[in-house]
């Protein structure tokens, strides 16, 4: 789904690519996507205010184009919703965050085939291939792969215990510090390879940074319950209570909306021009990738009977997406109540990144 406010010449655009729902059991991430789209639909001034930003954040939003994949792993999610609450892989049994062609297929000593499966070859999986081709064509300035399992803000690298160095590494570090300070003070920051406790090979974020040269490439881990039993994956990766759910969803949607405002810390990102205010609020080029639903069907689902202009197309998409996410999240909670196996509390050893 593409989302922008106003008409922005390509050389002034801040292109932000956000990917959600890569691992099936991390249901909460797609709810953040739905909330973000609703937030953006309120216009740049309201979105900037709700995201905790000021005039600079609003100006950054006015020249931003978001490309949002609300649910990458449709097949895996379907299996989770039918009861396999611990599944992280896709519908074909591959972890698409191990399927990218950077250090692909390397197995650590503690490799767990249930958790990680790199696929038959790099980009054997349609999800990874589609993302790669879209990223290659669109050339974003920022990429965020949104996961759950812990609370952390990561830059590359996942396959070695190191972070990028030099002026660009310093810029990434400054962006992480700013996001942590405002949006997640208790988040671990650094690189996945150094902080998670294991190295991960063939990940999307490493490829996007190294092979596609996206200046700001990150993985966000937005939630984790370390007291959950090993078999209680719904609780481990998703908040249970309404209050906590609301806090997680609203705060991370705000962090996503605030991201354009901190990108100028990186030298390879277009900087704001003097007096740049952007144009009139409008939606441009929005296309929903929600199966074969027609705008009319989506309007009915959203309860609207208006003529379809681009703005109502956006509103309908957001309402439908929010409805789908809420319904499936509730069904996950019900399944959990019916009883996944409850074992004694063990150390949380689940893979997150
Ligand atoms: Zn994950």
Outline the structure in words.
The chain has 353 residues and is α/β, with parallel strands linked by helices. The protein has a single domain, classed as Aminopeptidase (3-Layer(aba) Sandwich), CATH 3.40.630. The protein has twelve helices and seven strands. It has helices at 28-41, 44-50, 55-62, 74-81, 126-138, 166-183, 192-195, 204-210, 233-237, 242-263, 295-301, 310-339, and strands spanning 2-4, 14-20, 64-69, 142-147, 150-155, 188-191, 216-223. A seven-stranded mixed sheet has the order 1-3-2-4-7-5-6, with helices on both faces. α2 packs across α3 (55-62). The two termini are 24 Å apart. The model is unreliable at 277-316 and 340-349 (pLDDT under 50). It binds zinc ion. Zinc ion is lined by residues 22-23, 26, 147, 149, 352.
Detail the topology: elements first, then pairings.
Blueprint lengths: L1 E3 L9 E7 L7 H14 L2 H7 L4 H8 L1 E6 L4 H8 L44 H13 L3 E6 L2 E6 L10 H18 L4 E4 H4 L8 H7 L5 E8 L9 H5 L4 H22 L31 H7 L8 H30 L14
Parallel strand pairs: 2-3, 2-4, 4-7, 5-6
Antiparallel strand pairs: 1-3, 5-7
Bound molecules: zinc ion.
């Amino acid at each position: 789904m593409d989302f922008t406010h106003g008409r922005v010449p390509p050389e002034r655009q801040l292109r932000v690519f956000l990917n959600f729902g890569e691992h099936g059991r991390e249901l909460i991430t797609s709810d953040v996507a739905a909330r973000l789209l609703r937030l953006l639909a309120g216009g740049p001034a309201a979105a900037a205010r709700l995201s905790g930003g000021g005039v600079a954040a609003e100006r950054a939003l006015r020249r931003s184009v978001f490309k949002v994949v609300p649910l990458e792993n449709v097949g895996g999610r379907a299996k989770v919703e039918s009861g396999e609450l611990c599944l992280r892989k896709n519908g074909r049994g591959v972890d698409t965050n191990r399927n990218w062609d950077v250090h692909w297929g390397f197995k650590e000593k503690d490799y767990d085939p249930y958790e990680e499966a790199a696929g038959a070859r790099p980009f054997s999986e349609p999800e990874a291939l589609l993302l790669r081709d879209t990223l290659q064509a669109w050339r974003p300035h920022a990429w965020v792969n949104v996961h759950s399992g812990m609370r952390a803000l990561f830059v590359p690298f996942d396959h070695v215990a190191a972070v990028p160095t030099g002026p660009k590494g310093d810029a990434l570090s400054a962006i992480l510090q700013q996001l942590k300070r405002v949006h997640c003070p208790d988040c671990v920051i650094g690189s996945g390879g150094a902080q998670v406790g294991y190295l991960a090979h063939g990940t999307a974020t490493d490829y996007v940074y190294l092979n596609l040269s996206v200046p700001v490439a990150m993985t966000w881990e937005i939630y984790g319950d370390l007291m959950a039993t090993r078999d209680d994956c719904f609780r481990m990766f998703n908040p249970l209570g309404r209050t906590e759910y609301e806090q997680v969803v609203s705060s991370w949607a705000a962090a996503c909306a605030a991201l354009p405002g901190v990108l100028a810390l990186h030298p390879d990102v277009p900087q704001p021009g003097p007096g740049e205010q952007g144009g009139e609020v409008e939606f441009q080029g929005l296309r929903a990738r929600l199966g074969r639903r027609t705008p009319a069907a989506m309007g009915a689902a959203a309860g609207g009977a208006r003529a379809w202009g681009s703005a109502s197309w956006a509103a309908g998409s957001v309402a439908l997406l929010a409805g789908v996410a809420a319904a499936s999240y509730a069904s996950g909670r019900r399944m959990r109540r019916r009883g996944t196996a409850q074992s004694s509390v063990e150390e949380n050893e689940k893979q997150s990144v």
